[in-house]
Amino acid sequence: MTAPLVVIADALHGHDAQALAVADGRIVAIGDRADARAWTGVGTETLRVPGTVLPGLVDAHAHPILAARVSRGRDLRGVRTLDQLRETIAHERLRAAGGWVLGWGLEHAVWEGRTPNVDAVADAAGDAPMLLRMFDAHSALASRAALELAGVREERTFASGSCVEADATGRPTGFLREHEAIGLIERIVPSEPDAVVAARLADQLADMAASGLTGAHVMDFEGDPTALYDAVEDAGRMSLRLRIHPWVDPEMAPGDWERLVSETGTGGRLWRRHGVKFFLDGTVDNGTAWLCAPDCHGESLRSTWSSPAHYAAAIAHFAGHGVPTATHAIGDAAVRHAAASIAAARAAYPGSVHRIEHLELTGDDIVAEVAASGAVASMQPTHVTRFVHADGSDNWSERLGVRRAQQGWRTRSLVELGVTLALGSDWPIAPFDPREILAEAQTRSHGGRPPVQPAEALTATQALAGYTAGAAAAAGVSSEEGRISVGMRADLSVLSADPSTCSAAEVSSLAVHATIVDGLVRHRGI
Predict the structure, then answer these.
(1) Whole-structure pTM value
(2) Beta 271-273 vs 213-218: how paired, if at all?
(3) How many CA atoms lie within 13 A of 189 on its CB side?
(4) What is the CB neighbour count within 10 angstroms for residue 168?
(5) Is-contact 163 170, C-beta < 8 A?
(6) Which of 5, 229, 251, 429 has the fewest CB atoms within 10 Å distance of its CB?
(7) Rounded distance between C-alpha atoms, residue 455 and residue 442, angstroms
(8) Neighbours of 310 (CB within 10 A)
(9) CA-CA distance, 120 to 86, in Å (whole number)?
(10) What is the pLDDT of residues 292-326, one digit of tens each?
C-alpha cells in the first residue's frame, strides 16, 4: 500500500507505535518506523517530526466569525481601571477621526461594582459614535452619539429580557444588556467588506491551527456568514474543521425549526451546519442568568425563553430529527431545566446527542441531574481562571455571594459522576490556545494567582480527553474522531510531548510541530 501521507514521530498517543499512514482523509495504517517504509512510494509525503501525535485537539465552543468581526476594534482586555478606559477611548477617538470608536473584551471589573454608565467616559468619547463590547459579548456600552444615531432615546425591553438600561429619569445610560439591545446599535455600525472580514477570519483560523487546534465547534451563524466561510475555503485557507450551530430563537415557530433541520449538514468540505444552539439565559455578570434565587442585586431570575416548556418542545423536536443540540445554560435554574428537558428528549429518542454549554453554577443536586440526563458538559476552564478570583472580589462572585460562588465550574465533580466533559475557549471571550486551557484546567489558576476552587481541578488525562474524546462525543462523532485508530478521520495534532504525561506548567509551553486536518498538513511548526 502506498499512502499519500505518512507521519513518523517519537510516539502516537495511546499506541506503542511511531508511525501512521493517511489516505482519503482517514488513518489507514498504524505501526512502527520500519512499517512506514511499506507505505511510502511515488507521491508520498513523509512528515518526520519529533514529539507525540495526538488525536486532533478540538475547541468545543468558539465564535470565530464574531471574533473576525469585533476584532476590527480595539482590544480592551488589558484595561483595568476607568482612567485607563477613558485614556483608551480618547486615543481611539482621535485615531478614528470622526468615525466610530469600537472595542471589545472590556471586563466588568472596570466599573468597580457600579452599573456601567456611559456618563463615566463621556468626556473621552466626546461626540463620537462608540460601541464597546463587554468581555462576555452579552452586553455593551454605547455613547450618546451612537444612541442618537440609532434613535434610542428611552429604555427599551425585549421579551427575552434584553434591554437598554435607563436611569431614574428614563434617559438611556448607554448600557445594553444582551443581543437584541446590542443589535440596535450594531446594525448602524458601518460594515466592512466581506473580503476584509474573510481575510481576518482566515488569519485567525491559521493562528488557531498554530496553537495545536484541528477543529472547533462554532456556536453561532449570525448574519449568514456562508460567503465568508466559502471565501476562506475557496482560497485554500480553511485550517480547521468547523461544526456550526445556528441559533434557535425563542420566538421561532415549529416551521422555523423545520428550516433549521433541513439546513443541517449543508456547507463546505471543512465547515458544516452540524447542530443547533439554544440560549436558556444570559450571564451572571450582567444580571441576566437564570438562577434558583436572585443575585445580590435582585437580578438573574428569568429565562430568555418566556415559555421554558417551549424550549423543551424544541429540544425534543430536534432530537426526533437527529439534529444535535447545544444549550447555553449558566445559572443553576437554567442548567436544571436544560438537564430535565434533555433527559425527556433522550427518553423519547434514545441516542440523541445533547450538550449543555458553560454550566457556571451547579450545586451537588444539579451536578447529579446533569449526570442523569446523559448530556455532555461543554465547559471553558479559563472563564474561571481569568475572570474569577479566589478571594471573591470579582463581579461574578460578588453577585452570587460566598456560598454560591463555591459552586462554580464543577468540572471534576461532573467527571467523577460519569459526565462526559468537552473543553473549549469561547473565543473571543477568552484566548483559544488549547495548551493554556489544558494547563489551567489542572491548576485552576492563571498568572500565579491563588487557585479558584482547586478541588475541581482536572487531571492531565481528564483535561486532554476534554479536547479529544469529549469533543467528539459532544458532536456525536465518537466513531470517527477523538482517538487514533485505523478508519478514523486523519485530524491530528503533533506536539513536542504528550500533554497527558506532562506537568501543567510544561503543557502551556509545548511546541506545536504540526496539525493535520482531513489528511492534509495545515500547519507546520518545524
Answers:
(1) 0.95
(2) unpaired
(3) 23
(4) 5
(5) no
(6) 251
(7) 10
(8) 15
(9) 8
(10) 999 999 999 999 999 999 999 999 999 999 999 99
